UniProtKB/TrEMBL annotation:
PROSITE patterns: HTH_RRF2_2
MF terms in GO: DNA-binding transcription factor activity
Signal sequence bounds: none
Protein name in the entry: Transcriptional regulator
Cross-referenced Pfam families: Rrf2 (PF02082)
SUPFAM superfamilies recorded: Winged helix' DNA-binding domain (SSF46785)
GO cellular component labels: cytosol
UniProt cross-references to InterPro entries, sorted A to Z: Tscrpt_reg_Rrf2, WH-like_DNA-bd_sf, WH_DNA-bd_sf
């Protein structure tokens, strides 16, 4: 099963955007996520809609933070990405009248709800500035500076 790495990739991009005062292109930022610019722009659309980033087209265009890292939480980013599934498993519904299936689904549902509530609580308490390493270098893609 493939893991969804969008959250990790977007956090990487946002932290680098927190280091610059000039727009960075989709091409440059897509490279940090290991994707192409079109997929990058689609991934970032929710963050733009939520007001966390700005983007401009044409010469001199690109991406900038719309808010400081101190005002953006991990939960904000997770929600802007459409709340990707936290767990790869879910309830079975082949025989909803089966008492065993109902008991299993209830136990799984309760546990997953509790895990998600803890996740949301903790992510809501962490702002992106807390993720920034103290001696982070400017944007580099695979060891090559790009700023």
């Amino acid at each position: 099963m493939n893991k969804d790495t969008r959250l990790s990739g977007v956090l990487h991009v946002l932290l680098h955007l927190g280091q610059v005062s000039v727009p960075l292109t989709s091409e440059k930022l897509a490279a940090t996520m290991g994707t192409n610019p079109a997929i990058f722009r689609r991934t970032m659309a929710g963050l733009r809609k939520a007001g966390h980033v700005h983007s401009g087209k044409g010469h001199g265009g690109g991406w900038l933070l719309a808010q400081p890292l101190t005002e953006i939480t991990l939960l904000d980013v997770y929600q802007a990405l459409g709340r990707p599934a936290l767990f790869a498993f879910g309830n079975r519904s082949a025989n909803p009248a089966c008492k065993v299936e109902q008991a299993v689904n209830e136990a799984l549902g309760e546990t997953l709800a509790q895990a998600e509530a803890l996740f949301v609580q903790r992510f809501g308490a962490i702002t992106l500035d807390r993720l920034m390493p103290s001696h982070a270098s400017a944007l580099a893609v695979h060891g090559h500076p790009h700023v």
